[in-house]
Specification:
heterodimer; A: 118 residues; mainly alpha; 5 helices; B: 210 residues; 12 helices; elongated
Chain lengths: 118, 210
């Protein structure tokens, strides 16, 4: 299966795309948004963050834009059209997986499933 | 950048472990992000937690970035002569890596006819990688000299160029094997013993006797 198939995006990359779906952000803002989106479960260091940014940038899913502030060191990133489409495809894949999980009584019916097992 | 390098001298130096193109592109931003993280930390405990997170994140990230350059040994900044000589060095090593494991079984027979007969094959098998290593080392020397930078800095910059460093590392390994490892240099007829003198011969006699 192709690496570009939905569901194959690494978690950090997916989180970055999701964090950029609202507005362009710089590195630290991205970290904060990712932490907030994951309910504090995903905390990235600069190495992991910029490693994923590099990959996403090379794949054309995000792009660097001119800084909004006068702070020259900060670089802002935003989703490209391809990135937005890829994020949409990922979310649809997850949505379908969640629906499947519900149908199979894995999600949302945990107690019922536990009773059925007993 | 200069003030952030001064503010985080250790982290700034650690960033040199990354491949050069990566560091040039993101090093400054990583320093800025670290500064943002620390500035947003309300207490010393939080700052310590940030440092722990950053330092744990570093080795994994460095390894991933270095490995990502294995398949892409050359960058746009790599001069043409380095690209060409690296490929030649690698080609000089190739026959040794392919044939040496087979030849090793009867190595002593080849040593007995070191320069002529079947031994000529083994001689070239050792010489070709040595030539490859010499070519790598010379290329490296001229490349570093062209850069007009400190040796230490330049060598760190070369960490992403695996194709260049591999022949040198392998070459050192082969030289060690031929000159110092008993299993090869103590084989009867190996002329390396004559080069190393009576001491090596006595050592070999002793080790063969035991």
């Amino acid at each position: 299966m192709s690496r570009n198939a939905p569901g194959f995006l690494p978690q950090v990359s997916f989180s970055i795309l999701l964090a950029l779906s609202l507005k362009p952000r710089h590195g630290y803002e991205l970290m904060q948004q990712i932490e907030e989106d994951s309910g504090g479960k995903l905390r990235l260091g600069p190495g992991a963050l910029y490693g994923a940014i590099r990959q996403l940038h090379d794949e054309g899913l995000i792009e660097e834009i001119a800084a909004e502030s006068d702070h020259e060191r900060r670089r802002y990133y935003r989703l490209t059209q391809t990135g937005r489409e890829r994020l949409g495809a990922e979310l649809e894949y997850f949505q379908a997986s969640v629906a499947l999980g519900r149908d199979r009584r894995i999600l949302g019916n945990t107690m019922e499933y536990a009773r059925w097992r007993i | 950048m200069a003030d952030l390098n001064g503010r985080f001298p250790v982290y700034s130096r650690l960033l040199r472990l990354y491949p050069v193109p990566y560091r040039k592109r993101y090093g400054e931003q990583m320093l800025q992000t670290l500064a943002d993280m620390l500035d947003a930390s309300p207490s010393v405990t939080y700052k310590a937690a940030v440092w722990m997170q950053v330092l744990f994140d570093l080795p994994v990230s460095v390894a991933r970035q270095q490995l990502s350059f294995v398949g892409n040994a050359f960058t746009r900044e790599t001069p043409t002569f380095v690209r060409r000589n690296s490929v030649i060095s690698a080609l000089l090593f190739a026959p040794f890596l392919v044939i040496a494991p087979i030849n090793d079984i009867d190595a002593h027979r080849f040593y007995n006819t070191w320069l002529w007969g079947a031994g000529i094959l083994f001689t070239w098998l050792v010489l070709l990688p040595v030539l490859g290593m010499a070519l790598s080392a010379t290329t490296l020397f001229f490349w570093l000299r062209a850069g007009k930078r400190s040796w230490w800095q330049s060598l760190l910059d070369l960490t992403h160029n695996w194709m260049m460093l591999l022949p040198i590392v392998l070459g050192i390994g082969i030289l060690f094997l031929v000159f110092f490892h008993d299993s090869v240099h103590c084989v009867v007829g190996n002329p390396i013993n004559e080069l190393r003198g009576a001491h090596a011969t006595l050592h070999c006699i002793a080790s063969n006797a035991s």
